[in-house]
Amino acid sequence: MTTLVKAEKYLFTTFSLLLLSYIAYKAIYSPLTNDEASTFLSFVHSGKFLPWLSAKMIWSANNHILNSLLSWLCYKFFGISEWAIRLPNLLALLVYLWVNYRIGSKLHNFFLRWGFWISLLLAPYFIEFFGLCRGYGLSFAFLTTGIYYLSNYFKTSDVKSENRSLIFMVLTLSANLNALNLYIAWLLILLVYKWLYRKESIKLKWLLFRLIPLVYFTLFALKLRNHGELYFGSGEGLLFSLRSAVIILFDHQKHYVYIITYVLVLVPIVPLLISIFKKKYFSLFTITATMFFLYLIAILLQNIILNINYPTERAILIIYPLVCISLFWGIQELANHFKYGYFSYVLVLPLVLAVLKTFYSTFNLAGSSYYYLRQEQIPHSFIQHVRQEQEKHEKPLLIASPLLNNHVWNYNNLKEKGKLNCIQSPSNENDHLADFQIINPVGFYNYSTYYQKVAVDSLKDVMLIRRNPPVKTSLIQSFSSKPLSTSDKFITLFEWSLDSIEAESIGLYYKVKIKPRRLSQRILVTYALNDKDGNTLYYNQFSINTAIPSKKSEKVIEFSQYIKEVPPKSYRLTSYFWNIDKKPIEIESAGCDIYKLHK
Question: Which of 190, 234, 269, 409 has its CB surrounded by the most CB atoms within 10 Å?
Answer without folding.
Answer: 409
